[in-house]
Structure formats: C-alpha cells, structure tokens
Amino acid sequence: xxxxxxxxxxxxxxxxxxxxxxxxxxxxxxxxxxxxxxxxxxxxxxxxxxxxxxxxxxxxxxxxxxxxxxxxxxxxxxxxxxxxxxxxxxxxxxxxxxxxxxxxxxxxxxxxxxxxxxxxxxxxxxxxxxxxxxxxxxxxxxxxxxxxxxxxxxxxxxxxxxxxxxxxxxxxxxxxxxxxxxxxxx
Length: 186
Fold this sequence. Notes:
mainly alpha, Tetracycline Repressor, domain 2, 2 domains, 10 helices
C-alpha cells in the first residue's frame, strides 16, 4: 500500500473547509470535495474514514483553540461589578480565534447548535457552562444555558453576516452586551 501524503491530506481538508462552510455538514458532498481536490472520492476515504471524520479533522484546530481558551485561568477573586474587565482578555482571544478560523467556527456552530449527541460539541458546551458556573456560581443552570446559546448564536450570526474587517468590533459589542455588569443582572 502506498504511503499517505500530508500535502494531499491538507488539500482535502482545505477544500472540505470551504465545502462545509458554504453548504453546511448535511449539504456538503464528498464528490464535490474530491473534484475540488482533483482526485477520486475513494482517495479521500484513504485519508478519512467518513464524512464525519473529515469534518472533525477540518474543524479540529478551531475546536482545540476554543478548548484552550476556555481553560484559561482567571483571577481567583473578581471585584464586584468588574467581571467584564477580568474577562476582556479571554474575549479578545476568542475574537482572535474567530478571525483565524472563521470557516471552521461557522461550520462547528452551524452543524451542532442544538444537537445533543455530538461529543465534540457537547464537550465544548460543558466546558463553557462549567467556566460560567465557576466564575459566577449564582447562575442557575437555565441562565448558564441561555448565556451559552447567546454566545454561540451571536458569534455564528456575526461570522456569517459581517466582513472580516468588522468582526472584531461586532464581537466586542456582543461580549460587552452579554457580560458587562453581568453579576448585577443575575
């Protein structure tokens, strides 16, 4: 059996990222990805066992960046009413991730918002909600879930509807809207 080539694998992932971004997971077509990659479909399956496996490989760098971000340690004691100030560096990093991986973030969010059986997304949801509850223990489970979905749907809306030159400003607005003086609102 011939050796798998990294440059071929990377070409498949790049074309898959475009396909998943443009058509979503369910509309993405392995034949179209193969055609854009200038190969037959069977060759893609030498590198990825399934469409799901290709999707996971495509979004993995963005997912790992998000997981790393969520695990960033904030100061142990937050000043009352000053939660946003401590959270601002984390939100700035999230903006950087969205700028670096816009297609991948859109693909993850578009595919899995509301899906309860996808482990990659469920892990991300659990990490975010755990972080919210650690930083703001008075949040109820319902409030944490609402904030989680506001973040995800807001980021998805912004990434899908605004040019990259406006992403930082609009994501900043979203985060200020959600988190500025949140401890007073709960």
